[in-house]
Structure formats: C-alpha cells, structure tokens
Amino acid sequence: MFAPDVLGPTVDRLAALAGAGRALEFAVGTGRVAVPLAARGVPVAGVELSRPMLDVLRQKVDEAALPVVEGDMATTRVPGEFSLVYLVFNTISNLLTQDEQVACFRNAARHLAPGGCFLVELWVPELRSLPPGRRATVWAQEDGYLGLDTYDVLRQRVVSHHVRFGEGREAELFRSPHRYVWPSELDLMARLAGFVLESREADFSGAEFTADSRSHVSVYRLPGAPTT
C-alpha cells in the first residue's frame, strides 16, 4: 500500500479530481494517502473512528495541517464544503449493513459542493472462485503469509483471515469482517444519494475495468457546475 508505484498514482488521481478545491477522506486512518495529498498542496480534512490510528497520524502532521473529526464515516459531519470526498482501500465494506453503506454515500453528498465528486476504491467479490459447497477462498499464499476469505452469501458478508507465520509452529491470526458490494449495487447507492457514475477503472493507474478485474476505482459526481 505504501509502495511509490501504488501510492503515486493514487495521489495523482485524487489531486486532479480535487483541483483547486478541498478534499475530505473518509476513514483517513494513519494518513497513508492524506498526508502525501496534503503535501501536494491540496487542503485535506478527514474523518476517522479509530483513536489509535489518529494517534499515529498525529505523529506525522498536526491538526492545523490536516484537521480530523473523530467519528463514523456514515454519519459524521465535517465543517466546510469540499470538491472531493474519497474512500480508498475497500473501506466502505467495513460498514456491515446496506443501510450504513447507503448512509455513507448520502454523507459524502452532504459535504460536496455542486459538481463535486465521490471516489470509492473497492474490490470485486470473488464468488466465481468459490467452489460449490465451499465457503472459503485462498487469495494469497506466500512465504510466511496466508490470506483467505470465508463467505456468508446469504447475508453478503465476508471475513478476511490474515495468517502470518515463521519457521516454528506458532502463527499470528488477524481477521476483519466486511460486507461485500457489487459494482452495480454501489451504483444504485450512488443514485439514491443524487450521484451519477462518471468513470470506473480497474485501478488508480487507469487500467480498463473488465469482467476479470479484481478491484475498481469508481468516481461519482453530483449535478452542477464542476469545482475543478
């Protein structure tokens, strides 16, 4: 996530969308994206629920350089108006109900000036690789690391399991729950909040989105005069 060939195109795309306006990151975390975006001259603010992540962010920049409101990205209001709201690295799936995800789109719309846009980066559910009768897929198998997802297709839930291990018998397990969302469902959420889909690409480098793409970067725009 921090590699220059990943982070560089991300910041380039966000800076272009923000133009001369302000940007707001939902789930700003430790500032992986917001800090270099602010360094590019874009005024950036954030919303973050995790106090430990905010503590790490504050070791990098102070409140004056990057103001953050602590709270839930589906409901928390940040003062001012923005030309761009963005949500990267699958984070909208951390909202575990459809209602919360719809509320997130509506919250983004509340923060935007007419013509402003909401960017969402999200993975495509890999249900095609789920064998009949099985509930799990292995999506990463490397030296010292195993990544797998367990699916609940009835509730549209997935739990990502990250297993890290060395030469011995012990291993470290981290699990994160998500609600997976199809691109078409995401588009409907956007329409409910007043957005229209402007573009969809496979990544921040602009690769074409196809039926085989494992992720997408979607840009939704509000009606009105563009702010860029």
Structure write-up:
With 228 residues, the protein is of the alpha/beta class. It has 5 helices and 11 strands, in the order αβαβαββαβββββαββ. It has helices at 4-18, 34-39, 51-58, 98-111, 183-192, and strands at 23-26, 44-48, 68-70, 82-87, 112-123, 136-142, 145-152, 157-165, 171-179, 196-201, 215-221. A 7-stranded mixed β-sheet has the order 3-2-1-4-5-11-10. A hairpin with a 4-residue loop joins β7 and β8.
The stretches of 5 or more residues where confidence is low (pLDDT under 50) are none
Task: Report the structural category.
Answer: alpha/beta
**Mean pLDDT figure:** 93
Instruction: State the oligomer.
Output: single chain
Task: Please count the beta strands (DSSP E, at least 2 residues each).
Answer: 11
Question: What does the overall shape look like?
Answer: globular
Radius of gyration: 18 Å
Proportion in β-strands: 25-35%
Sequence-ordered SSE layout with sheet pairings:
Elements lengths: L3 H15 L4 E4 L7 H6 L4 E5 L2 H8 L9 E3 L11 E6 L10 H14 E12 L12 E7 L2 E8 L4 E9 L5 E9 L3 H10 L3 E6 L13 E7 L7
Parallel strand pairs: 1-2, 1-4, 2-3, 4-5
Antiparallel strand pairs: 5-11, 6-7, 7-8, 8-9, 10-11
